[in-house]
């Protein structure tokens, strides 16, 4: 019931649309439009320092007025935290950013300018207009940018992964820990119920050591072979292209069996699903 009462509560700021227009609505709209104009002017055509300081002081006065009006509206809502959740963006609009030095940070200035435009829209159309607009458009916007952002991040991650040399680093790690690995392998062979019987043979320890050393030597030579570098590079590149294509087809969000045939190989998720199906039948 509390939610329904909140839904029926009249907006404290009704804007200038016909119905409940007050003089303060016009004043706040003019101030909101003025704050947009001041910051926009500082971004597009930065004035001299003295003129910029005058604009900054005027902007500080406007922000102070909006801060007082914001606190008044919050007090009318009995300091309800939900008021902050709905109107959080207004706090950023109260930042006096129309300063010659601050306005030089274009990205931050443009973001705050857009927030001030939203505040001006609230003053023109009514309280929470920007909140409702963003709430309506957030999901389509996220869906629109999710795929290209995912692909861009994937490309950057793969570029970072391609800067490594996995076979050579693996070979270095194996060589540095050769004694520990030989001990582990010998322990596992001795503990194995079948291979453990070999310890009764003459020269058992020498045979195990020779086999392990030979295996290590061959493995290290294979890892240090330049052709293995090409193999690993091909694996990374092919997986990147398949993942990129799968993201473009939307296979990372849903199981579209009719789209999976467009990939060069089946996905790991499809293989796991097939395994689970066969295992469940058994």
Give your account of this protein's structure.
- With 282 residues, this protein is mainly alpha-helical.
- It is built from 12 helices and no strands.
- Helix 3 packs antiparallel against helix 4 (81-93) and helix 7 (166-176) runs antiparallel to helix 9 (204-223).
- It is a multi-pass membrane protein.
Query: Can you write the helix and strand succession as a string?
Result: HHHHHHHHHHHH
Structural class: mainly alpha
Give the overall shape.
elongated
> What is the helical fraction, as a range of percent?
over 70%
Distance between the termini: 53 Å
Radius of gyration: 33 Å
Low-confidence regions: 1-8
The proportion of strand residues reads: under 5%
* Oligomerization category of the chains in this entry: single chain
- Integer average pLDDT: 76
- What is the number of beta strands? 0
Question: What's the story with the biggest beta sheet?
Answer: none
Number of helices: 12
Membrane topology: Multi-pass membrane protein
Transmembrane segments: 26-44, 51-72
Protein name: Ion transporter
Organism: Amycolatopsis heterodermiae
């Amino acid at each position: 019931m509390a939610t329904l009462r909140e839904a029926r509560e009249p907006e404290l700021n009704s804007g200038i649309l016909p119905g409940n227009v007050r003089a303060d609505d016009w004043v706040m709209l003019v101030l909101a439009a003025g704050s947009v104009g001041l910051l926009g002017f500082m971004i597009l055509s930065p004035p001299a320092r003295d003129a910029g300081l005058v604009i900054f002081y005027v902007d500080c006065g406007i922000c102070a007025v909006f801060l007082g009006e914001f606190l008044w509206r919050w007090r009318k809502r009995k300091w309800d935290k939900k008021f902050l959740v709905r109107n959080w963006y207004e706090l950023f609009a109260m930042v006096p950013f129309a300063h010659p030095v601050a306005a030089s940070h274009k990205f931050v200035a443009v973001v705050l300018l857009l927030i001030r435009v939203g505040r001006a829209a609230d003053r023109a159309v009514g309280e929470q207009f920007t909140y409702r607009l963003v709430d309506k458009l957030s999901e389509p916007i996220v869906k629109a940018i999710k795929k290209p952002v995912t692909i861009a991040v994937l490309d950057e991650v793969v570029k970072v992964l391609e800067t490594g040399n996995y076979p050579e680093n693996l070979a270095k790690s194996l060589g540095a820990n050769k004694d520990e690995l030989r001990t582990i392998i010998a322990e596992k062979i001795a503990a194995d119920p079948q291979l453990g019987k070999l310890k009764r043979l003459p020269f058992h320890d020498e045979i195990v050591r020779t086999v392990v050393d030979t295996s290590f030597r061959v493995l290290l030579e294979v890892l240090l072979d330049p052709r293995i570098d090409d193999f690993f590079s091909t694996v990374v590149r092919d997986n990147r292209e398949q993942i990129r294509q799968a993201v473009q087809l939307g296979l990372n969000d849903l199981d579209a069996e009719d789209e999976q045939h467009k990939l060069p190989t089946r996905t790991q998720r499809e293989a796991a699903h097939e395994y689970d199906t066969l295992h469940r039948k058994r």
